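Can anyone check this?
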Amino acid sequence: TGLQTILQMIGGTELSSEKVKQLFENALIKNHITVTSMQEFAEMGEGSVVVVTWKGGHAILLWDGREHVGINVFTYVEDVAFATHLAQDIMKSDPLLKVALRDEMPRGFGRVVNFAKDLGEHRTMPHWATNIAGH
């Protein structure tokens, strides 16, 4: 389970592969993320892709080589504020970058995909789940 947030940003001041990577890295540091792996792919097309993983999730930054920056963030905890803070920190470093689109999607398993807040506090285990678990 978790939360996937997609951010599309436009604008920016003289963007480059190195600059968008640095903006991304600095925003992760400001949000106290200890990166476990980072890979950059800049040899394809005009833009670049940066893939980052950490204990609590992963993120993919895509730059089209012009003025579009897309960020796909997945966190194992439903923390809506995390992607907001990440975007704000990037925009503080480059005030011309603005969020043009934001989409949040809960992630579950099986065919159940809900935000935890939508399920309420008094949840009961489905009968089939208790039977499978041997209860």
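Reply from J.R.: I decoded it. The mean pLDDT is 86.
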